[in-house]
Amino acid sequence: MKIDFSNVPLAPIATVVAALITSLIAFINLTLSKEQKTSDFRQAWIDGLRGDLAVFFSSARALCRVMQEARSPHRSDEDVLNFRFSKEQVGKMRFEGAEALYRVKLRLNPNEDEHAELNRLLDLATSTQNQINVEKGLDYSDALIAIENASSYSQEILKSEWKRVKRGEKSFRVAKNWIMPMIMAISLVFVSVLLYSPVETDQSIQSTADAPAN
User: Fold this and answer.
1) Helix (H/G/I), strand (E/B), else coil: 148
2) Is 19 exposed, middle or buried (0-12, 13-18, 19+ CB in 10 A)?
3) How many degrees, rounded to 5, is the angle at CA 176 between CA 172 and CA 179?
4) Cβ within 8 Å of residue 42, ≥6 positions away
5) pLDDT by residue (tens digit) across 125-138?
6) pLDDT, tens digit, for every residue of 19-53?
7) How much is the CA Rg of the chain, to the nearest whole Å?
8) Contacts of 34 (CB under 8 A, 6+ apart)
9) For labeling, which of 29, 43, 97, 171 is most exposed (least CB within 10 Å)?
């Protein structure tokens, strides 16, 4: 069945469709702007977490070595004395390590399994180190292993969060994969109707003009 668009009032339809397309474009622009800010915040979160983790792990490892050397029977050897930290340096490392640890904890979301696991590994690293300190042990291997385990696991979280930033937020993906194609489809249909209708009208006029007069 052939539809004759020559008698369809296109002006009101054009107004409505144009308003709809304009609204959808404005919505997409708003969504993209919001999601860009969200991605920027998430990237800043990743950078901050990476920096705090680096401070904590480096301080924790250094403190293990400090205590191990301080209790070593070879602590008076010249090579040990030359690389020994001062009390001020040790105090600074302890403060910076503790501060970084709690900044990391405050960044983590306890409702996410990966974050909860990292928090557990960080607690295990600190508790293992503290237990050796309390017992005045000489072997900090378990503490160093616990620190490395937490460090390795944290890299997976940083990688996962970076993939999330690269992929984009959910509303961004919806706008990109669904709304934008829908706008393009509506626009193409509307333009096609506008282009088709004048042709039909012109053909009708031409047919009327060519018809023999009675």
Assistant:
1) helix
2) exposed
3) 105
4) 161, 164, 165
5) 999 999 998 888 88
6) 776 777 776 776 667 677 777 888 888 999 999 99
7) 34
8) 171
9) 29
